[in-house]
Design a protein that fits this description.
The complex is a heterodimer of chains A (about 350) and B (about 425). Chain A is mainly α. Chain A has 12 helices and no strands. Chain B has about 425 residues and is α+β, with helices and mostly antiparallel strands. Classes of the chains: A mainly alpha (about 350), B alpha+beta (about 425). Chains A and B meet through helix 1, helix 2, helix 3, helix 4 and helix 5 of A and helix 1, helix 4, helix 5, helix 6 and helix 7 of B.
Chain lengths: ~350, ~425
């Protein structure tokens, strides 16, 4: 009940003033109650996940009757897919983060960061489609080309850097200069690879862990990048400037000052990327062939926990043994990702606190 | 020496950055091309084979040494693919008078137009279906093809699928996606804003706990949310509602099977962290002078919050909402557990009371991508269709995200200028 100041005169009765104040307080209390209720609901919903999974598995004694062998295969499939994906996402993500945070021109950085946000927003079902329908037929005959690219591209870049690096003072716009070189190298290697089918490595299945790794790595790249970039960018500028003042090059400042300071952030980025890979469903569902085979061969198919949940859960009757096996699989997935996330969160939190303390001190 | 090797490594970092930029551009380009291509009118080729046979049809795939040709589908869709090696083909041409007739059920018929009407030409087709359109693709110029393309696009967006998702449009999937996301937004916004206010206003162990819970659970895989949605919402709450209110219809489930409401609740749970983080950031960025001024004029803390801070953070609310919508529109895995279907007989909204039917199963654009690519009987049609759906989905999601990113950046600029 707001009071218009124009009608306020000095001899208002104290009762009226009190009742207005009381109404204001009551309204505030009501709104605060709503805030509490909403928060409680959110918390209850989120906390329901682990409790629901554990309650569904009761009684615990019957757990040993579940299909542990199948679960082991699913687990190994998840691990194999995640390992392949991390091999793509972590080196690329960390490299791009280092470049963007430390070398990049601010104007280029202002484009790269939203570009990765866009990549993060691309639904994974779309990446799964591209992997299954476009990359899989190519990879089936070009595994050797892919391996060659993974060696030749960094080697050519390193050689180019050796040859011309000393002449280029400012690396700020380097990616744009390197883009034509990169495209040329990829085109040449792909063309040579297409001619030499004889040396091709033939995977036993067109849908395999390597394919999943490529698509899944691409999907978790934005997460690895943004966490690592945040950590590197958080290092106070005074630190790098001190390094420059002592005669360090940009690269030396990065390796000797920035990386040690932000190192735990890079570890956190790796852990979060791994966690994302463990739980991703659509890509694995579409590109892995969904055959439950074990082993470490990246060129055979796999079936992951998440794909098993997506395929098996709607069919399983509640409280049946198959259903309980799936709940157990979901619980394992949850514990795996939760522990990785929690660990990464602790590491990041400590890093943030230390770096902001350092920034205040300087 | 160390200096030079270091500089060289910088080039590897720059190269990795270039690679990622190229990959992103390539990804979007591929989606744009492969997504729009199925709607572009294809040319009709006439192939003369070594054994004297003459075939008329669309070339749908080119491998080295062979092509795949789609000829007239007389009886049913997807029956008339021919794989021909180049050595079999004597001559190829694109006859100007070739005619393509598309039937309503998606079948395509090809022929040479010799002055007779299309119906007479294709009287041989058994199970006659209504003709959707007929055109002379080879005689069309670029702009005329563009016109056909726009008509096809309209048809794709505005009609229902036919022939078990191999042909026709994606309107039900589009409606399902939009209704689902709207319902999700109505649920997630009050909850997310309330939680953000709680985190913003209070201090102490409770806040730390809530924040830690949200941060760690934000990274839980979406499929686990789907498991919760199926087990708790569908089998738990839904079955309970059925026993209480719809006991006469049992054992046919009403709310006890996957449906729009449970899918929306699952997605709301999935996107709550996005809204909370966005709104909390918006509240935290409002300059302290705002709040101080309000408190100095005698407003209570709650009045300051509701009358001043929340309106000032309105763009942040909008940003959170748009990010949440974008995330929800792309989440397919949890939906597979809580009620998305390949073909829904009825839409979740219609003209009959109560207009919105939260217990109905629904179709979804993202699931249509998966279904067309992997579960269709005719992959030569299914994959282009999956790409068309994927292109549409990505266009919607990226447009939403771009607007949210721009909004957020403008907001940050404005608060920065307010502080100075």
């Amino acid at each position: 009940m707001p009071v218009d100041p124009a009608t306020c005169d000095t001899n208002l009765s104290p009762d009226l003033i009190q009742s207005v104040a009381r109404a204001r307080l009551r309204k505030g209390r009501l709104l605060a109650l709503l805030v509490y209720a909403g928060t409680t609901l959110v918390l209850a919903g989120l906390m329901a996940i682990p409790f629901f999974l554990m309650a569904g598995l009761l009684p615990w004694a019957a757990l040993s009757a579940l299909d542990w062998q199948g679960l082991r295969l699913l687990f190994s499939g998840t691990l194999r897919a995640a390992a392949c994906a991390v091999l793509v996402a972590v080196p690329l993500g960390l490299a791009v983060a280092m470049f963007t945070a430390h070398f990049c021109a601010p104007r280029l950085r202002a484009w790269i960061k939203p570009a990765f946000e866009i990549l993060d927003a691309v639904p994974t079902v779309v990446l799964g489609l591209i992997a299954a329908a476009t990359i899989a037929p190519w990879l089936k005959t070009h595994v050797a080309t892919l391996l060659a690219l993974m060696v030749i591209v960094p080697a050519v870049l390193l050689a180019a850097g050796m040859a011309f690096g000393a002449r280029v003072r400012n690396e700020a716009w380097l990616p744009l200069w390197l883009l034509p070189l990169l495209i040329a190298v990829v085109a040449v290697v792909a063309a040579v690879g297409a001619r030499h089918d004889a040396v091709a490595i033939v995977p036993s299945s067109p849908w395999n862990a390597a394919l999943v790794g490529l698509a899944l790595g691409f999907a978790s790249l934005p997460l690895v990048f943004s966490v690592a970039e945040d950590a590197l960018f958080l290092v106070p500028r005074a630190h790098t400037q001190a390094a420059f003042a002592l005669g360090a090059t940009r690269w030396q400042a990065l390796t000797s000052v920035v990386m040690p300071a932000a190192g735990s952030g890079l570890v956190a980025a790796t852990m979060l990327g791994l966690s994302r890979c463990f739980g991703e469903t659509m890509i694995v569902l579409m590109a892995s062939g969904n055959t439950a085979v074990g082993g470490f061969d990246p060129l055979i198919g796999l079936r992951s926990i998440s794909a098993e949940l997506a395929l098996g859960m709607p069919e399983a009757a509640p409280a049946s043994s198959a259903y309980r096996s799936l709940l157990l699989a979901a619980l394992i997935l949850l514990l795996l990702t939760l522990s990785l996330n929690a660990l990464a969160e602790i590491v990041r939190d400590r890093l943030r606190r230390r770096l902001s303390a350092g920034a205040r001190a300087t | 020496m160390k200096r030079r090797s270091g500089d060289a490594t910088t080039w590897v970092l720059g190269g990795a950055t270039a690679l990622c930029i190229a990959a992103l551009v390539g990804l979007l380009g591929l989606l744009a091309v492969a997504g729009l291509e199925p709607l572009w009118p294809a040319s009709v080729s006439e192939l003369q084979l070594r054994d004297g046979e003459v075939l008329l049809g669309e070339i749908v795939a080119v491998e080295d040494g062979a092509i795949a040709l789609r000829t007239s589908e007389i009886d049913r869709i997807g029956e008339a693919y021919r794989r021909l090696s180049n050595s079999e083909i004597v001559a190829r041409s694109l006859p100007q008078d070739a005619i393509t007739v598309t039937l309503v059920d998606g079948r395509r018929l090809f022929g040479r137009d010799r002055g007779t009407s299309a119906e007479a030409l294709f009287g041989s087709a058994s199970k006659p279906a209504a003709v959707l359109d007929s055109l002379h693709p080879n005689a069309l110029g670029f702009f005329a093809r563009g016109g056909v393309f726009l008509r096809n696009l309209g048809h794709f967006l505005g009609t229902s699928p036919s022939s078990s998702n191999l042909a026709g449009g994606v309107l039900p999937a589009l409606i399902g996606t939009v209704v689902l996301v709207l319902l999700m937004s109505i649920m997630v916004m009050p909850l997310g804003v309330a939680t953000a206010i709680f985190l913003h206003q209070r201090r102490g162990a409770g806040v730390r706990f809530v924040r830690a819970a949200i941060n760690t659970l934000a990274g839980v895989p979406s499929i686990v949310y789907g498991v919760l949605g199926l087990g708790l919402f569908v089998h738990g709450i839904g079955a309970g509602i059925d026993h209480l209110f719809y006991a006469d219809r049992l054992p046919v489930p009403t709310f006890g099977s996957g449906g729009l409401l449970w899918a929306a609740m699952t997605l709301a749970l999935l996107t709550v962290p996005v809204v909370v983080i966005s709104v909390e950031e918006g509240l935290a960025r409002i300059p302290a002078s705002f709040r101080d001024g309000s408190l100095a004029l005698g407003a209570t803390r709650d009045e300051t919050l509701w009358r001043l801070l929340l309106p000032a953070a309105r763009p942040a609310l909008l940003t959170g909402l748009v990010f949440a919508i974008a995330r929800a529109a792309g989440a397919v895995a949890p939906l597979m557990l809580v009620g998305v279907v390949k073909l829904a007989p009825v839409l979740p909204i219609d003209g009959g009371f109560p207009y919105l039917h939260p217990s109905r199963q629904f179709m979804h654009l993202g699931f249509a991508v998966y279904d067309a690519a992997l579960a269709s009987s005719d992959t030569i049609r299914g994959v282009p269709r999956a790409y068309a759906c994927a292109g549409l989905l990505v266009a919607v999601v990226i447009a939403l995200n771009l607007s949210a990113i721009l909004l957020r950046n403008r907001l940050r600029e404005r608060y920065r200028s307010l502080e100075n």
